[in-house]
Amino acid sequence: MGSPVSTLPRNDFRTSWKTNRTNSIRNQENSFSSLLRDSIGDGIRGALGQAILGVLTDQGLFDKASVPKEFHMKLQSAFGNGATVIEKVIIKDLFRKLNIPYASQGSFEYGEALERARETCAQEVPTK
User: Fold this and answer.
1) What sign does the CA torsion over 83, 87, 119, 27 have?
2) 101: phi > 0 → left, psi -120 to 50 → alpha, else beta; which?
3) 13-48 vs 110-124: helix axis angle to the nearest 10?
4) Contact between residue 65 and residue 71 where contact means Cβ atoms under 8 Å apart
5) pLDDT number for residue 12
6) What is the pTM of this model?
7) Within 10 Å of residue 117's Cβ, how many Cβ atoms?
8) Helices marked H in the chain — which ranges?
9) Could you give the CA distance from residue 71 to residue 86 in angstroms, rounded to a whole number?
10) Whole-angstrom Cα distance, residue 75 to residue 56?
11) Residue 104: its H or E element
12) Which tens digit of pLDDT belongs to each residue from 9-38?
């Protein structure tokens, strides 16, 4: 077998730039997903304990955690009105990790808070 051959044309800045930009966006999303998973784990563990976290993880409750409406519906079906409290705990931890001030007054919308965190994460991840 020969050596791997690059599919990118040599000296094609546009192709290289698009590839680097795509990789940068993917890296940003991976960084955010990792922070979100950590915050979910820390929040659930802190609020409900390790055993409950294990059960919820085994049931796949957090598989779509970055999709706010779906995540909220799953939490709501498991915890009823307590879902919002759990979402606040998760967002508070995520904001702490991203160094975003968390204001507990006013209305709370998990999707909006998650989007704010995602935008902050995208700004903090250096691009190539």
Assistant:
1) negative
2) beta
3) 130
4) yes
5) 54
6) 0.72
7) 20
8) 13-48, 50-58, 68-79, 82-98, 110-124
9) 11
10) 10
11) none
12) 455 544 554 555 566 777 778 888 888 888
Which pair of tokens denotes residue 105? Answer: 């007054």
Domain ranges of the chain: 19-122
CA 44, 48, 50, 55 torsion-angle sign: negative
Long-range contacts of 29-38 (CB under 8 A, 24+ apart): 31/121, 31/125, 32/66, 32/117, 32/118, 32/121, 32/122, 33/66, 35/94, 35/97, 35/98, 35/117, 35/121, 36/65, 36/66, 36/90, 36/94, 36/114, 36/117, 37/62, 37/65, 38/97
Distance CA 31, CA 125 (A): 8
